[in-house]
Specification:
Largest sheet: 3 strands, antiparallel
Shape: globular
Strand order of the largest sheet: 1-2-3
Distance between the termini: 38 Å
Helix content: 10-25%
Structural class: alpha+beta
Oligomer: single chain
Length: 64
């Protein structure tokens, strides 16, 4: 069994070009989670657990 590794999500060479967090992807109409610039998971708006206000705000402010 291997030891767990603690990731420092904010330590990057160029933080202006690395996506971290939840975004709304217009092309696929899905909410997408990114960790250190890598796609972690995606979910459709109907399956997303966030409330409607959060979904609308994310779709407007964090669309990619």
């Amino acid at each position: 069994m291997s030891n767990p590794v603690q990731l420092d999500l904010f330590a990057t060479d160029d933080p202006t070009h690395v996506l971290n967090g939840m975004y709304y992807e217009k092309k696929t109409n899905k909410f997408v989670s990114f960790v250190k610039g890598l796609r972690h998971f995606e979910v459709t708006p109907s399956r997303c657990l966030g409330d409607e206000a959060w979904k609308e705000k994310t779709m407007k402010e964090r669309a990619i």
